[in-house]
Design goal:
This is Gene transfer agent family protein. This protein has about 100 residues and is mainly α. It is built from 5 helices and 2 strands. The chain has helices at about 25-35, 40-50, 55-65, 70-75, 85-95; strands at about 10-15, 20. It has a two-stranded antiparallel sheet with strand order 1-2. A hairpin with a 2-residue loop joins strand 1 (about 10-15) and strand 2.
Length: about 100
């Protein structure tokens, strides 16, 4: 079982067949806002209500980078990631940051 720092908001999720660490850092948040073309939490919250597959990749990649999983984040478009696992991992990371 992967060691995560709950105080920091880190979560573990199984993606591409292995346990990965995700974290909503300020850098990840900025990357998400830029990648989705939104500014501010209100616009981000609205956009998160209906993510496209591309949007999900943007968000997941940023959360993976925040958790130190840059290699998977950089190759995410070609990784064997189940969309449901990806959505659950994103939800889990945002819940941990609340």
């Amino acid at each position: 079982m992967m060691s995560t720092n709950g105080v920091r908001g880190e979560v573990a999720a199984v993606l591409a067949g292995a346990e990965r660490k995700l974290c909503l850092t300020l850098g990840a948040l900025a990357e998400i806002e830029t990648g989705l073309g939104v500014a501010g939490m209100a616009a981000l919250a609205e956009r998160m209500k209906a993510l496209s597959a591309r949007d999900l990749l943007v968000v997941l990649a940023a959360l993976l980078r925040g958790g130190g999983e840059a290699a998977l984040a950089d190759g995410l478009a070609n990784a064997p990631v189940d969309p449901r696992e990806a959505a659950e991992a994103v939800a889990k990371a945002f819940a941990a940051a609340a």
